[in-house]
Amino acid sequence: MSERARWAVLGAGVITGDFLAALPHAAHGVLHAVGARDGIRAREFADRFGAPVAGTYDQVLARGDVDAVYIGTVHTTHAELAHAALDAGKAVLCEKPLGVTAAETDAVLAHAARVGLPVVEAFKYRFGPFPERLRALVSAGTLGELVSVDSTLGFAADAHDGRLFDPATAGGAILDVGCYPASLVVGLAAWAGIDAEPVIVAADGVVGAVDEQARATIAFGAFEARIATAITADLPRRAVIRGTAGELEIANVWGSRVVSTAEAVLRRSDGTVEPIRTATVSPMAAEADATVRALREGRTEVPEMPWSQTRTTARLLEDWRAALD
Fold first, then answer.
1. What is the bridge-based pairing of β-strands 68-71 and 91-95?
2. Spatial separation of the C-alpha atoms in residues 165 and 316, rounded to whole Å
3. Strands of 11-111, DSSP E
4. Phi first, then psi: what are they for 305, rounded to 5°?
């Protein structure tokens, strides 16, 4: 590997453009190649972002001068492209969800374990100073034993067409944005040392061709999570985490594709209130750097989104979708 890892991106859509806008802020990697289904589209995207190499997916993956791959395509192609990248000897940073099903997710992780290469599910809100502080607060028992969490994420799409509303591309609210609150509650349980597997206690929503809105109550033993998501309604971006010793309210727990979350309010059970503030980073650059560090250090996982949580989140999303059928 060169001094800075050479990144290829697979996909030439909006989120890949956001990743490439963030990549110059990464400390350990540079853009080298763009791959797309259409080589002409790849070349246009490469010229826009200054990549010297462009081609189809297969052409880019066959190159020996690519170290890591970012996958920013539609959900139904994530697992297939991740397998292809691992076969080609590349580290993988894949947009969520890693697989449409739990079985797809497990298969990719098993492949990565066999070849000894990193696979990182790109939940960008997990990367940066604020999520590090959140993990530390929960792990240290600052909130006491976790009791409940409420978390939502949803938006009203401008048009009810395209990949979001297409069953053939695994559209719907749960896989596109509901995966964020689902992965958050999985993380909270893990950081608190709760071993219980998540169980869907109740679920409902608005379902057309795909799930347009969805709610769920999830039990991790005595810890209860209430989450909601939508692609046809704006929902708050907040999370409120309650424990026996206090409550943490995070107004914008997800941050954005440009800047990570920085603020929360800790209300202790003794009545004291503590503002929590951290520095911010480019979260997409941070997840890229985490992937490269894992590759350089011979690790297959990153602490921000370990495989155990990727697996549990995949099973939870599958159960949530099934509960709406």
1. parallel
2. 21
3. 29-36, 53-56, 68-71, 91-95
4. -140, 75
The strand pairing partners of 219, in sequence order, are 199, 224
Using CA atoms, how far apart are residues 128 and 286, in angstroms rounded to an integer? 7
The pLDDT tens digits for 172-225 are 999 999 999 999 999 999 999 999 999 999 999 999 999 999 999 999 999 999
Query: CA 318 → CA 77, 106, 174, 275, distances in Å?
Result: 17, 13, 9, 36
Q: At what angle do helices 14-22 and 39-49 cross, to 10 degrees?
A: 30
Distance CA 152, CA 301 (A): 27
Helix (H, G, I), strand (E, B) or coil at 231: coil
Cis peptide, bond prior to residue 97, ω within 30 of zero:
yes
In this prediction, residue 1 carries a pLDDT of 58
Which letter does DSSP use for residue 176 in this model? I
Per-residue model confidence (pLDDT) at position 161: 86
How far, in Å, CA of 113 to CA of 324, rounded? Answer: 33
Q: Would you say 228 and 181 are in contact if contact means Cβ atoms under 8 Å apart?
A: yes
